[in-house]
Design brief:
This is PLC-like phosphodiesterase. Residues 1-18 form the signal peptide. This protein has eight helices and twelve strands. It is an alpha/beta fold. It has a single domain, classed as Phosphatidylinositol (PI) phosphodiesterase (TIM Barrel), CATH 3.20.20. Residues 1-7 and 246-250 have low confidence and may be disordered. The structure holds 2-acetamido-2-deoxy-beta-D-glucopyranose (5 copies).
Length: 307
């Protein structure tokens, strides 16, 4: 009942917002006029892996970022990835578990995202969350999206699953006030009651393998699911390099980040994957230490804005 009410409030807000924004259609989308007319499915976005796992303490082993999500967004990150865990009955973002690294509640995280979106009205953002404990989408996730206000900005596809070529342009997403696209790796296939804006990731996005210790980033289609062909999916490359430390524990390597996040390394990885995507560049490039290196330059090249 509470969920139904929450969703209908969200729909009403979405309509109101669409009405307001439609009167001043965006002429710059995600910082570029050219992107307004380009399909969401045909753009390369930079993503922050474990976006909440931020610490300047070099001894915090489970950290993957050294700037907070607001700084990541200000710098140009347009996909935020995060791993959830229940902690004393409340949904948190934690890395591996909440003792190792507790990034706070999902609700607080989403409120921070909402504030940033409010301050940046011509930006389209993707959220990619993982749900390793199979926490209820309608019971726990949806209320956090509703309470934070992010649900009212979330895109609901007209049909499912959406092919890569089906996605609206950034201008259309902005014009409709539906400029947040939300994917979940598990539990969003409708099995436990569907929430229409929380989309099943692997039906529409495939991923390369993760947990690499090989600096050449050989490409393969690792996680995906039907019914669409692989080439009809968008795709994400996990471009982060782990190092083996003692007891075969692998951790993200901050020292190598300037090499890993260089234009050369990112482009080599991207071009190694185009064979699986009818020659298309990756839609999402997921990075650790996203403030280090030349990620945005690499994305500009893949988007055709510089050579
Ligand atoms: C937008 O794209 C369509 C088809 O790709 C094209 O026909 C149209 O001229 C473009 N509009 C602008 C304003 O660039
Ligand atoms: C977008 O389309 C162009 C032209 O087909 C292609 O070169 C580019 O790789 C595509 N990018 C993505 C992310 O699909
Ligand atoms: C925008 O909203 C209108 C009215 O609800 C709808 O018909 C249209 O399909 C929406 N466009 C996109 C790209 O979501
Ligand atoms: C790769 O991305 C997936 C999905 O978001 C995530 O679960 C995984 O931890 C990532 N791994 C690395 C090393 O980037
Ligand atoms: C995906 O990658 C993991 C290692 O990261 C590997 O164990 C697994 O077999 C791969 N699965 C597929 C379908 O390639």
């Amino acid at each position: 009942m509470r969920v139904l009410l929450g969703l209908s409030v969200a729909s009403a807000l979405r309509l109101a917002l669409a009405f307001v924004i439609d009167t001043k259609r965006a002429t710059v989308c995600n910082g570029r006029a050219e992107l307004c007319n380009r399909s969401y499915g045909n753009i390369t976005f930079i993503g922050a892996h474990d976006s909440f796992a931020e610490s300047e303490d070099p001894f915090a082993l489970a950290r993957d970022q050294d700037v907070d999500i607001t700084t990541q967004l200000n710098d140009g990150v347009r996909l935020l990835q995060a791993q959830s865990h229940m902690n004393n009955g409340v949904l948190h973002f934690c890395h591996t578990n909440c003792i190792l690294f507790d990034g706070g509640t999902v609700l607080d995280y989403l409120k921070t995202v909402k504030s940033w979106l409010d301050a940046h009205p011509t930006e389209v953002l993707t959220l990619l969350f993982t749900n390793p404990e199979g926490v209820s989408i309608p019971g726990v996730w949806a209320p956090a999206f509703d309470l934070s206000g992010v649900a009212a900005m979330a895109y609901i596809p007209p049909n499912m699953p959406m092919k890569q070529s089906d996605w609206p342009t950034l201008g259309e997403l902005l014009g409709n006030g539906t400029r947040v696209v939300v994917f979940m790796d598990a539990g969003a296939d409708g099995a436990d009651g569907s929430v229409p804006f929380i989309l099943p990731e692997f039906q529409m996005i495939w991923e390369t393998p993760y947990g690499f210790t090989d600096a050449t980033f050989p490409c393969s289609v690792n996680r995906t699911s039907g019914p669409l062909d692989t080439t009809d999916h968008m795709y994400m490359i996990n471009h982060s390099l782990n190092v083996d430390i003692i007891f075969s524990l692998t951790v993200s390597d901050p020292i190598e980040a300037s090499v890993t996040n260089s234009v050369d390394s990112i482009l080599a990885n991207a071009y190694g994957c185009t064979q699986f995507a009818n020659g298309r560049a990756p839609n999402f490039i997921l990075l650790d230490w996203v403030d280090v290196g030349q990620a945005y330059q690499a994305a500009d090249i893949l988007n055709g804005f510089r050579t």
